[in-house]
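Hi R.,

Quick one: here's the Ion-translocating oxidoreductase complex subunit C sequence you asked about.
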Amino acid sequence: MGFLSFRGGVHPPHFKEATARLKVEKAKEPQIVTIPLQQHIGAPCEPIVKVGDKVKVGQKIGEATGFVSVPVHSSVSGEVKQVTRLLTPTGETTCVVIESDGLNTVHENVVPKGDIGSLSGKEILDIIKEAGIVGMGGAAFPTHVKLSPPPEKKIETVILNGAECEPYLTADHRLMLENPGDIVYGLKAMMKVLNVSKAYIGIEDNKPDAIENMKKAVEKEKGIEVVGLHTKYPQGAEKQLIYACTKKEVPSGGLPMDVGVVVNNVGTAAAIATAIKTGMPLIERIATITGKGVKEPKNLLVKIGTSFKEIIEQCGGYNGNPGKIIMGGPMMGLAQYTDEIPVVKGTSGILVLTPEEARLPEPKPCIRCGKCVEICPAFLQPLYISAYALQNMHETAEKYNALDCIECGSCSFICPSKRPLLQSIRVSKREIIAKKRKTK
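And here's the predicted structure, written out as tokens:
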């Protein structure tokens, strides 16, 4: 098998050894869940329950308020104790706090929806939307939106991201080993929605067991191909994955649909299969809890709304004082200043670093070595965009295509002067986007 790749990228240490061979365990039932009504890109949900209401597993508790939005469901049965604004991994938002009754009574609406052979594409799309399914790789973009391209955008290919190129994380790896059937089922459902006959599943070559397992799972399927990818970061980024699998380049400022491709995560495909086969919406996910700062790294199936603190305690607790807690991986994850926050749909992992690992080096002046330009997978000039961002010259940064930055962090990783390249570019992107919105 020839392994495919893209231009640029970096090779950070994998740090996956601690959990790569550990089977997924079901986390202990939480007594209290805090379920945010915005766990996705787009408009937040409106609460449709109030304090004192009794709810069941899989019951809708938040209604989507726009097209780019998805409903939110209860992960436990019990009583609503609060509907209030609380801190979440991505900021403060309205949350529904539920005290579990320990019974896990399933809501009456949670019933099998049929089979993809008998369901129409429109019916499958409605099931995906009502199940609250979002991108499970961490971005949490509503899946039904991705599967609803404009009529003029003809989709020819679906790509499933099984690369899991982010260091430390092994949730997708374990899913491909333990539940390949649901991944393929969900992929076939997406293919039917989009009316396409060709699909790829891209997996990095540091997961040879997953490649072989998924190959076996698709050997009788028409039009689905497992593609081995060189292990390189950010191999799992949409545009880079598309190029590696199809040699198509998404244009500057464009989207995957502009080259006839839709990309989703393997975890998303499995969630779609669950929603169709059982009727259960997205109320739990696999997360990797790892790092030298935690005593017993694990892959856990965790209910949405469970606190980080509770999950870490199930992994033996902290190994000394934590230096940093990150939701996701070290390259694109979000650092947290407290563990009193809930697991959300985008929580692919909880990484706990020691104080020594978390200590950032003092940045030095740029030496114009050009390494950030050489490795940038988006073909940008990070040193210039960053320099203009630091001078609040955001219009000039935009001329250097700052908005094309995929925020992978490769430039910051490779920089010998340890410049805050990603952080400054990210600030500039936010300023440019905010200005565009004001203009509109």
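The two ends are 50 Å apart (CA to CA).

Cheers,
M.
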